Amino acid sequence: MTERKTREVRIGNVSIGAGNPIAVQSMTATRTQDIDATVRQVELLEQAGADIIRIAIDTAKDVVALSEVRKARADANLVIDLQENYRLAERVAPFVQKLRYNPGHLHHIEREKPIRDKVRYLVDVARDHGCAMRIGVNCGSVDPEKLSRYAKNDSITPMVESALEHAAMLDDLGFDQYCVSLKDSDPNKVIDANVLFTESRPDVPLHLGVTEAGMPPDGVIKTRVAFEQLITRGIGDTIRVSLTLPFERKGEEVTVGRQILDDIANKRFRSVPRFEQHGLNIISCPSCSRVENEAFIDLAQNVRDMTDYAKEHDITIAVMGCRVNGPGETDDADLGMWCAPSFVNLKRGPQTLGQFTYDEILGRLRLELDKLIEEKGASSF
Prior knowledge:
The protein has twelve helices and 15 strands. It is of the alpha/beta class. The chain has two domains: 9-265, Dihydropteroate synthase-like (TIM Barrel), CATH 3.20.20; 281-379, Sulfite Reductase Hemoprotein, domain 1, CATH 3.30.413.10. The strands form three sheets. The chain has an eight-stranded parallel β-barrel, surrounded by six helices. It has a five-stranded mixed beta sheet with strand order 11-12-13-14-15. It has a two-stranded antiparallel ribbon with strand order 1-2. α6 (156-172) runs parallel beside α7 and α7 runs parallel beside α8. The radius of gyration is 20 Å and the shape is globular. It starts with 8 loop residues before the first strand and ends with a helix.
């Protein structure tokens, strides 16, 4: 184990970095406006041992619901995921201990306004309300201008550059109560990105996670590889395990995270230095309040069952639950789906093939999968 001591960041009654125990967090998967269900989910995650719980906010009605969740769970350490609605920050900050924003998403709103002005607004809100912040960089939503500077197969450098740039902005604004995350669905890229960031900014606490890791057991394996390789190097101050699970089982994310930390602490390692993906690779997001049809969770399970016949083929299928992450984070998959309220968008790489009902999608997916297998077979001769 390599020891690395970052500065301390306070999130409610939990502190990360500076040698504090690694905090475990998760995210509610219910619709935020369904107050009873969201309160129940917060309770389940707390019972499972979550130190920090994240909730997505997208509308003014979500903010009203959040205020009720806060009343019901007064002691919970809550984080708000602002996604593309950064202007809601001042309305949600009174109810939470931390704000999370994605640098890539800041480009889509008020495009004429400089990014630095948007970041200054977020910092002012966080400072006024005593909130910490997370700069959350995701592989599928990096600033397009940064992506354009590098080769298409280099997704790591733009991510790290974005994280370093925003960390510098917060530093310049005199705000140090922040952490950074660099996430990808490929655990090797998660390792490489976090190591590269740490070389430049060893002082910044890091939130670790493999985004869209998928369903157990594959999702657990991918996450374990990344965590074991990073935490043993002293990299990682808080973790989130992202698994596609039914709502009542979301606490398993926390349980798995605690188990991995315990294994690392007791030198029980179950992974190898590099994750080698052979055969069918199904990527799916862990679901959250942005999912517009709960059928997404069943769809992910059904895709895994239906495609079992193709498990020996090196093909990646992505199943995403919403319009926020779905379009960009399915681009690198051979076949990708992202779910709307009444239909599923099907893609082949970045090309959209069409929209299909939840009843139609599995049949069309199989057609495209068979076509892809045939093409790959023909190209090998």
